[in-house]
Amino acid sequence: MAATATPEFTSSEASPAFSVKGKEALMDAVEDIVFGSIAGVAGKYIEYPFDTVKVRLQSQPDHLPLRYTGPLDCFKQSLRSDGFLGLYRGISAPLVGAALETSSLFFWERVAREAFFKAGLYQREKPLPLSALWLTGAISGAFTSLVLTPVELVKCKIQVPAKASTDGMVHRSPTPLAVIREVFRHQGLRGFWNGQLGTLIRETGGCAAWFGSKETVTLLFRHLNSRNTPFSSSPASLKHQNLPTTSETSLAPLPLWQQAVAGASAGMSYNFLFFPADTIKSRMQTVSVSSTAPQVKFWDEGVAIWRQYGLKGLYRGCGITVARSAPSSAFIFIIFDALKGRFHLA
């Protein structure tokens, strides 16, 4: 393409590379979906055993003494009763969910940015401020929650044994298809979105923190690096320091350890800030679908946990969740950014 037709791609004062239209915009969206799916699956393999422990801690019944005293005790008992592979029970549905979730997050985040540009709120020629990136993350999470709730419902019902002996040992683990059939038979299609409000709160706020924290830490590292690199302090270079690395491929990638720190901060922020919503959601989704008791509403479930266990009950399993999210999220962003920077489907 001639330089006179697209001067922004050849000038030293170049406009952001994500200013693309037509076929290029479509291929960028396809890349978000494909590369996001790959990154999500990789991250899920890392975090899933910890997620199993988290769900088992969260879903302990109120009317019985606590089966697990903490994450380490839950790990020990799970390994003793199920073996190591037992911690990966039900991973097939979450792998699909991880691919859908991560690709959906990156896809809808791009759609939100494009909507801002078309609405005239921001100019394509200028980098989005961090506040806008936090907002696009929230929008992305809201749309993704609709996809994620059914997947997490199936996952939670598999991770928590449907039937257990009086000592809590697992004797039967339902398959994903068995769970799907049971939910549909008792609650219909609507039953798959049980806990949607919890997922919506967690994903909207959490994804704002996920994208926002990652881009904030990335920006801090770029400013720090610019002080130590004479070339980076030029006006043309500083102009692009606010651009997200997930979108701006013309920028030199951060050192690997800085990418890892930025990604880890994103995962930890996502999981900690809205963890109570996830606890309530898990409790709602692990109730037997054949139960004749009326379905408990989101706020009622939260009040019940608060009255019996206080704030500690709402954050049960939070420590292990935040710990496992650091390496998982770091790998997701590193893999996604690397694929976006090295492979182009267009």
Topology:
Blueprint: H1 22-58, H2 71-82, H3 92-118, H4 130-159, E1 163-164, E2 170-172, H5 176-187, H6 196-228, H7 235-238, H8 256-273, H9 275-285, H10 298-309, H11 311-314, H12 318-342
Antiparallel strand pairs: 1-2
Structural account:
The protein is mainly α and 346 residues long. 65% of the residues lie in helices and 1% in strands. It has twelve helices and two strands, in the order H-H-H-H-E-E-H-H-H-H-H-H-H-H. The chain has a two-stranded antiparallel ribbon. Strand 1 and strand 2 form a beta hairpin. Helix 9 crosses helix 10. The two termini are 14 Å apart. The N terminus is likely disordered.
Radius of gyration: 22 Å
Query: How many β-strand stretches?
Result: 2
* Low-confidence blocks of residues: 1-20, 231-247
* Proportion of beta-strand residues: under 5%
- Could you give the order of strands across the largest sheet? 1-2
Distance between the termini: 14 Å
Compute the average pLDDT. 80
